[in-house]
Amino acid sequence: MHDLLVDSGNTRVKWALTGAGVWRSGALTPGADDLSLLLDQAWTALPRPDRVFAAHVGDAARWQALDQWVRRAWRVPLVRVRAQPQLLGVRNGYRDPEQLGADRWAGLIAARALTDGPVSVVGCGTAVTLDALTAAGEFAGGVILPGLFLARASLAHGTAGLQTPPGDAASCLARSTADGIAAGTLYGLAGAIERVLHEFEAVLGAEPTVYITGGDADEIARHIPRALEREPELVLKGLARIAALTRP
After folding, report:
1. What is d(CA 77, CA 122) in angstroms, rounded to the nearest whole number?
2. What is the pTM of this model?
3. Which of 31, 122, 177, 196 is the most exposed place for a label (fewest CB within 10 A)?
């Protein structure tokens, strides 16, 4: 049996084909392109999966395009994964458990499988999310920040005279406006993440293992002065664990 796992975010669509010792993964960035055409290129040559599971946080149009493609090409349903009150050793502490993003939920599920100690999960995508998981598996909560692209776009669109080309974030001693925006958003976000992780330690009662994932993880991680475990496919690994619970 093969499962196709899909992490459908605001910017990218990440996927992995699993089963029988197989783990084959990839990513798409639709942008202005027709998603169905990109799926034709990426998925048509794949073995037909028996099931497709997706954590979707993008817009409704993207979900519709994914659902239509899967049903047309493979004639299998696209199962939308949602956060639950409790699953696989993780207890959801959100006031309304279903409001927790499916990608964050899957990341917590995967992190719980990687260690039985306290955990922080940092997702560096269009938005940056930080989530705290106790050693007992209780999701204690987290924060959501604008990611690098959103932070830079907000400065360009919301401030007169700052609509500049992309800059160089190599130094916080920037000598151009473009570089100042690039460095300021990167160093500012890294500093915010470090501060939140410090606050998490007080809640968790010990220094947590920190897993960092997402498209901007490598760039941001270089500026965070602590040990970080890089897990680029953390959400997909969580989806694989969730899918394994629902074997026919």
Report:
1. 31
2. 0.93
3. 31
Q: What DSSP string runs through 19-45?
A: ETTEEEEEEE--TTS-HHHHHHHHHTT
Q: Is residue 220 part of a domain?
A: yes
Is 133 in a helix, a strand, or coil?
strand
- Looking at the fold, whether 229 and 123 belong to one and the same domain comes out as yes
**Catalytic annotation, pick one of 7, 103, 179, 216:** 103
pLDDT exceeds cutoff 70 at 158: no
**Alpha carbon 26 to chain centroid, angstroms:** 14
**Do 147 and 126 contact (CB within 8 A), yes or no?**
yes
Q: Per residue in 87-120, pLDDT tens?
A: 999 999 999 999 999 999 999 999 999 999 999 9
Residue span of the structural domain in which 47 resides: 3-80
Please tell me whether residues 67 and 13 are part of one structural domain.
yes
pLDDT at 160: 53
Same domain for 127 and 228, yes or no, is yes
Q: Which pLDDT band holds residue 157 (cuts at 50, 70, 90)?
A: confident
Cβ atoms of 129 and 101 within 8 Å: the answer is yes
H/E stretch holding 169: none
pLDDT at position 137 is 97
Q: What domain count does the chain have?
A: 2
